[in-house]
Fold each of these.
Amino acid sequence: MKKTLFIMSWVLLFVSCSDWLLAAASPTQGLVQGSIWVANEEGNSITVINAGQNNVAATLTGIAGPHNLQVSPDGKTVWVVSGHDSKAVMIDAATYKVHGAVHTGKHPAHIVVSPDGKRVYVTNAGDNTVSVIDVSSMKTVTEIPVGQYPHGLRPSPDGKYVYVATIKGNSVSVIDAIKNAKIIDIPAGEKPVQVAFSSDSRIAYVSLNGEDAVVKIDVEKQSVIGKVKVGIGPVQIFITPDNKHVLVANQGTEKKPSTTVSIIDTGNFSVSSTVETGKGSHGVVVDPSGQYAYVTNIYGNDVSVIDLSTNKTIAKIPTGNKPNGISFSSFASPVSSTPIIQLIIDGMEMKH
C-alpha cells in the first residue's frame, strides 16, 4: 500500500512539474510584447488584447458600428471608423482617451495610416471615394473618387501608392499618394476585398471573395500576374514580415461559415497550409516578429491565435459581437481597472 502511494505521489509530482514546464514554455508568455486591437462591429465596442498573455486588457465602448481599425506606425495611436456615424476616431493606445474625430464620406469601411504616420485614408463605400485626413490638423484634405464600393485598402511601404479594393468595381483603384489622385483601375477579378503589399512595394496581393482566390499584382506593370485558389469566401489578407507567406482569412457565409486561414507560399504562389481557426474567419494580422497571427472569427465572437512555427491555433480569446477589423501594436496597452471604458468624443459620450 505504501509503495503504491509512493508511486502515485511521484506520478502526481511528475504531472505537476510537466504542467509547470509547459506553462513556462508557452509561446504566448513574454515572447511577444504588444497589444491586439479588435473592432466589434455589432457590439459597438473595441476589444484590446494583451499579446503577452492572450487575454483581454480592456473593452472600449461608445463607437457605433466600428467596422475596421488601424494602429499607427509608431503603435501609440489607433484609428477606427464608425460606420454608423461616418467618423474616423483617433484613440491614444496608452490612455484609451480620444484625440479627436473627423467626419468621413458615407458608410466608411476600412481605414489605414500612411507609412510616415502623417495621413489617414478611409474608404467610403456609400459614395465611392477615399477620404484623406491630415493627422496634424485632424481635417479631411480631400476625397478621391475611386471604383464602385471601395472596401479594403493598403498603402505601399514606400509611400508612393494606396491600393483600394473595390468590391462592385471588380478592380483595384491605384491612388498616387503624392498627388492625392487616382491614376488607374486595375481589373482584379470578382469582388476584391482587401490588399497586402510585399515589403519592397513591388508586389500586391488581393483577396477575391467572389472567386475564392487571391491574385498577385505586379506594381510596376499594374497588372495581375498570378492567381491561386484558397478557402471559401476569403476576406482580409496579410503578409508575414519576412515576405515568405500571405495569410488569407476565409469567412464563408453566415449560413455556411468557413473556419480556416489559407497560408500562401509567395515563392511558388501556392497554398502551403490550411489552418483551422474559428467560425467565420474574417480579419487577420501578424505580429512584427512573425511568430503569431491573430484572426477575428466574426460568427464565433472571438480571436484565434496561430503559432506560425507549427501552423496551429493555440488559443482563442473572447471579444464583443461580430469582431471584424484587427490590428497589432508593439506598444503594450495597459490593463484597465475598469472592465468597460466609455469613450468620450467631441466632449460627449458617443451614443449609438
Amino acid sequence: MPETPLAVVAEWQNAANNRDVARLFEFSDPQIEVAGPRGVGRGHQVLEDWVGRAGFNAEAVRTFARGNAVVVEQHASWDANPTDEQVVATAFVVEHGRVARVARYGAVAEALAAAGVSEDDQVVVEP
C-alpha cells in the first residue's frame, strides 16, 4: 500500500480513470464520503455507482497537500460529451491509507478552502 496521502490519491485517481472498481475499493474507506454537484453519499456502492454513471476522466494539472488533505486541480472530460472539457478540482481526505472523502469542486480556490489547504501547499509530483 502507498505510504503517503499523495501516493494514495494518485493510485485512487488512476483506478477511477481506468474504471477499475476493485482497485478503487482498495484505496477507499468502506464508508467513503463522495460529494459533488449531485449531492453527497457514503460507501463503496455509491462510489461504484458514480464510476459507472459519471464517465469522468481527469488529468492532474497541479497538486496541493497538507497533512492528510490533498487537492488536485484537473483537466476533466466526460465520456458522454468528450468535447465538454473543464478545469475542476477534487479535494481528498486520506485516513489510514485510504481515501475517506472525495469532493469535486468547480474551481481550485473552492477546493483549497474546503480542504484547509493553500496555494503555498503546491507540490511537485513526479510522473
Amino acid sequence: MPCRNSETLKAIRRGEWTEQRVVDFFEQKEKALNEAYANSTLPYSPDEQKIKKLLLECLEHHFGSLSGAYIEPDRYRNALVEIQDVCAKLQLHKE
C-alpha cells in the first residue's frame, strides 16, 4: 500500500526541506490530531461485548449455527481455579 505522503517524505529524505520546515510540518499535524481527538464523538474504548456478538453473528451467517461451538466460560469455576493457583503458589513459598 503506497504512502499518501510519499512525495513529501522523499523530498525530506533528499534534504529539500529545512529542519525547521519539518518541525513546523509535524507540529501542524500534531495540532490537527489533537483537535480531531478533542472533537471526536467516538467512545474512549471499544464495546467488546458488541464486537463479540457481531463476530458470532457473522460466523453464524457464514457457517450456520454455532450453538455447540462456543461455550460461555463459567466465571465461578474460573475464579476457583485462580484461587487454587494462588494457594498453590503461596504453599510453595512456605516450603
Amino acid sequence: MKALFEPLAQGTVRFLGERAYFLALPALFGLNPLPFRVGAFLVMFASLGLLASILHRATGSVLLAGLAPLLWLINSSLAPLMVWSSPDCHLLCGLLLLASLWQLQRYMDTGQTRYGVGQWLTFLAAFGTSELPLVYPAVAAAYCLCLHRRIPRSVLALWLGSALFLALQFTLIHPGARTGLYAPHFDAGMMQTFLRHAQRALGPGELFVLGGLGRRTATWLAVGISVGLVLHVWRRARRRDLSALFWLAWFVLLLAPVLPLRDHVVDYYPAVPSIGLGVLAAGAIAEAWRDPSRPLRLATAACVGVYAISSPLAARELAVKYYNDSVMTRCYLDELRRIHDRQPGAPIVVETFARGLFAPPIPDAAARLFGVPGVRVLPPAECAGIHREQGAPVYRFDGRNLVEERE
C-alpha cells in the first residue's frame, strides 16, 4: 500500500498510471521495455477508437470521424509518449478522459443512469494517472452547453470529485512538495506558458525548439494555423453550431492544470489537449470539402498542410532525441557494469555534473535495479571529499564512457 499511495515525485500520487503500472509489468516480465511499449500502443489504439466513436455519433460524418484521430495521432506531442515509458500515465489519462466523454455523450442522448455512473467511475479513476482530471468537470459542462444548451445537475456534481481530490492533496501532501521546476506560479506568466505550449502543439513551434526552423518562420506559421482554426470555430458558431467551440475549449481547459508550471514546459504536456486541435483541423477539412468556395479550400489546405507536414517532422526529431538518450543510458549502464565487474564490492562514485560532460542519465538507486550496487552519484565537492578520505576513484560521464577523474 505504501508503494502505491505514498506521495512522491513532487507530491503526486499517481497510483494507477505510475505505481501499479511500473510495479506490475516488471514483476511479470522483468526489466524488459517491450511490454511497456505494447501497453502504450494498445492504450493509444483504444483512445483513437473512442475518439472516432464520439465524433461519428455526434456528427454522423465518416470523414470527420476518420480524419480527426489521424490528425491527433501525428501531433508531435505524442511522440515522447509512444517511445518513452516514463510518461505513459498521460496516455492512460487521455484514454480515461475520452471514456468519460464517451459515456457523457450517451448519458445526454439517452438519459440512462448506467452511463452517468460509468462516467463517474472513469473520471475518478483518471485521478490515479494525472492531475488533468481536475478540469474534466469544466470540459463536461462545456460539452453540455455547446451541444445540448443545458447542464444537468449530475454533471455539475462532478466538481465534488475535483474538490475531494484537491482536499486530499492539501491535507496529505506537505506544502514544500512542489519546489524547483515544479513550483507553481499563479500569475500573469501563465498566459505566456499557454502560448509556449500552444505553439509547440501546432507543429512549427516544436520544429523551432528542435532547431528545424527559425523563430520568425515558426511563429508566423503557428499564427497562421491558429487563425485558420479560430476562423473555423467562428464560422461554425455563426451557424449556431458550437461543437467546434467545445473542442477549442477541450484544448484550453486541459492545458490549464500545467500552466502554473512556468519552469517545466515539456514536449508531452499538450498530448491530451491536442485532441481538440486534431478535431478542429478535421472539421476545417470537412467544412472546406462541402463548401464550393475555392479560397476557403485553399486556405484550409494551406493551414492543415503546414500542420500535417511540420508535426510528423517534429515527432521524428523527438523520437530520434529520445532514442539517442536511451543509447546513452545503455552506454552508462554498460560502463557501470564494466567497472563493477573489475572491482566487485568497491564503491563507484560518479559526479552529477561536469563542464563539457554529461550528467548520469539515471540515479544511483536505479542502477541497483540493473544489478550494479554501490553506485553513488554526488556533487563534485562531495566526490572530491570521498576521494581524499577513502581513496575511491571518481568518474565523469562523457556520453559514452565513464572517465576516471585524474588529479
